[in-house]
Amino acid sequence: MTGGEGSPQPVRVLIVDDDALVRAGLSMILGGAPELRVVGEAADGDQVPAAVAACAPDVVLMDIRMPRVDGLAATEALRALPRPPEVLVLTTFDADDQVLRALRAGAAGFLLKDTPPAEIVRAVCRVAAGEATLSPTVTRQLIRHVTAAEPAGGDPRRDRARRLLAVLSEREREVALALGRGRTNAEISAELFMSVATVKAYVSRLLTKLDLNNRVQVAILVHDAEL
After folding, report:
1. 15 shares a domain with 96
2. 112 and 195, same domain (yes or no)
3. CB-CB contact of 72 with 185 (8 Å)
């Protein structure tokens, strides 16, 4: 986003967490970054629709565990809107088996609650810019951790994923597989001998062809296909 004279506009952020101390801490961290602006807070998922309508955030930091409406349901509701804000899930990681479900619902990624402040700021900015929000290591770790508890016999999901990936060209498939390995655009560029701009174009094409929201969902689809 840019202002009328080309000056960058701060990314508008809504913080959703039932813990007042967490909200205060995040507000302090994000409010201290000139590229971000905290435009509102919500203490439960049932407050999110009204808060989004009132504050028009670019990014929502969404806690998973809340007493009335959890972050998963709130994320699904938000992503069903015509022009939804991006969602970053807040999690303790080793306790939240719903993280992958949130990513499937269209969340752009996740943040650990003990993430260093500078990393939180960078993650929010990346999400607002439509860029990668998970490091390769974290992507692989998240998928392994959360899906380890999924029941066996997930053949329908695997078959659906393989059918979707079958419509891709050979080059598109190579890019999809690289995303499944948690590769960044720069790493894909080096591996496949194409420019970063071309990689970005392929990622956009994949999202359109596969009807997905972001690159994290492409990685999950590749995982589902067991490729």
Report:
1. yes
2. no
3. no
Do 180 and 217 contact (CB within 8 A), yes or no?
no
Strand partners, 13: 38, 59
63 in a structural domain: yes
20 and 103 share one domain: yes
Give 68-73 contacts, CB < 8 A, sequence gap 24+: 68/44, 69/44, 69/45, 70/45, 70/98, 71/16, 71/45, 71/98, 71/102, 72/98, 72/101, 72/102, 72/105, 73/45
Among the listed residues 182, 172, 171, 165, the one whose alpha carbon sits nearest the alpha carbon of residue 221 = 165
Q: Which of the four pLDDT bands, split at 50, 70 and 90, describes residue 2?
A: very low
**Mean pLDDT value of segment 137-157:** 60
Q: 16 and 96, same structural domain?
A: yes
pLDDT for 134 equals 61
Question: pLDDT band at residue 133, thresholds of 50, 70 and 90?
Answer: low
Model confidence pLDDT, tens digit, residues 183-220: 888 889 999 999 989 998 998 899 889 888 778 888 88
Contacts made by residues 91-95, CB under 8 angstroms, sequence distance 24+: 91/64, 93/142, 93/145, 94/145
The answer to whether the CB of 75 falls within 8 A of the CB of 89 is yes
Q: Which residues pair with 8 in a beta bridge?
A: 2
Tell me the whole-structure pTM to 2 decimals. Answer: 0.73
What sections of 129-214 are H helices per DSSP? 136-147, 155-165, 170-180, 185-192, 196-210
Domain interval for residue 203: 155-224
Q: Is the pLDDT of residue 53 over 50?
A: yes
